[in-house]
Sequence to fold (97 residues):
Amino acid sequence: MKKRDEKKERKEIFGALAMIMQIGLSMMTCMGISFAIGYYVDQALGTKFWVLIMLVIGIMASIRSLFILTGKIASTEDDQKNISKGDSDEGSKKDTL
Fold:
């Protein structure tokens, strides 16, 4: 294997690890913040159900952030494939009104 191939492979591995860490941190942040808000609201009001409600909201927010992060990956990979194939829209005629 050439040095260029090894460097490219290392770069791809580090990119994948960075994305995994980013997804994990964003999910934990969403759930943690919503849990903390629910806990403090419960403490202030003397109730016991806000933690559960806010945790469900945090889980939904973390799933949304997961879709956003993975959607950006898919769109950038598709864009790079289209550019490498020469399918970019640059220089093409566009309809003008």
